[in-house]
UniProtKB/TrEMBL annotation:
Pfam families: 2-Hacid_dh, 2-Hacid_dh_C. It comes from Streptomyces qinzhouensis. InterPro entries: D-2-hydroxyacid_DH (IPR050857), D-isomer_2_OHA_DH_cat_dom (IPR006139), D-isomer_DH_CS (IPR029753), D-isomer_DH_NAD-bd (IPR006140), NAD(P)-bd_dom_sf (IPR036291). The keyword NAD applies. Residues 131-310 form the D-isomer specific 2-hydroxyacid dehydrogenase NAD-binding domain. GO terms for molecular function: NAD binding; oxidoreductase activity, acting on the CH-OH group of donors, NAD or NADP as acceptor. This is Hydroxyacid dehydrogenase. It comes from the Bacteria. Keywords: NAD, Oxidoreductase. Residues 56-342 form the D-isomer specific 2-hydroxyacid dehydrogenase catalytic domain. Gene3D superfamilies: NAD(P)-binding Rossmann-like Domain. Belongs to the D-isomer specific 2-hydroxyacid dehydrogenase family. SUPFAM superfamilies: Formate/glycerate dehydrogenase catalytic domain-like, NAD(P)-binding Rossmann-fold domains. The keyword Thylakoid does not apply.
Amino acid sequence: MRVLAAGDHFVRPELIRTALSRELTRDGGESPEFTELTLPWPHEPFGSVGGVHEASGTEEELIRALSGVSVCVTQMAPFTERVLAAVPGLRLVAVSRGGPVNVDLAAATRNGVAVSFAPGRNAPAAAEFAVGLMLAAMRRISAADAELKAGRWRGDLYAYEEGGTELADATVGLVGYGAIGRIVARVLRAFGARVLVADPYTDPVAAVADGVEPVELDTLLRRSSVVSLHARLTEETRHLIDARRLGLLPHGAVLVNSARGGLLDHAPLPELLRGGRLGALALDVYDIEPVPADWPLRDAPNVITTPHLAGATRQTAHRAAAITAAEVGRFTRGEPLAHPANPEVLVAGRS
């Protein structure tokens, strides 16, 4: 079996190769023949390539690298219709991210290529980052840091009207209660916060057992002094938090989005910040990435921004490689995939 480790500068090819070798030789099996490709992300932004999204590299270089390959493990390689049609020997693409957005699933299915992905790979990292954004926004940590570095000792920030707020006894609403949301909820409860969750796919009995209160989304927005988004972006959830729903927030609420930029309608945000409806906004994801030079939120007050870093830990990279390696192991043993993206493709028995 010839395997392409199509890594990048985060999930590196050597991480993929090491995880695959460990997985495939643990019961006395032989290590496969490897070939490697290093894609330019994140040193160069990802984008749309040949109809797939959040991809890195070119179709041409991927087609060349896939010569003679039956299995590819990647995070960002653009598996377009053109690429999939050009490599008839390919049988599995294991994508080391939470969703295979860089793969044309319809074309993969037509070409008999199974696709898997790696849900939960960055859940601890993303959950910790979301809580960090909450704390930074509620306590003005970033602003105070910038002031001190600029040579200004802002003792006046201790004044009552400038003071921050605490997570202890706060009501925090989580929009989405998947793997990341559940970790965030556990951390928030340890701080002493009351946690509301809005997620139509969550079992309300299980949520109550977790110590959180399941509610409708509009109710969550009305009752929460802090709201954090953790839903997946689909056609159903695009602009889920729109102008009407933003208007439901209590005056001075804190809003955090470290999930996907498309969940949030960005147009009303500058005015809501200037008018005080939003007390603070913390963003790791955006409607346009990278943000443009004339981005309206650049001069809005009380905004904390980071460049899509919530999942950026070394542990995430190792977990991503390990999850995809386990899928390749199942594939080579003829077992069902744990995380198939196109289960209609018969994979049992292939190698």
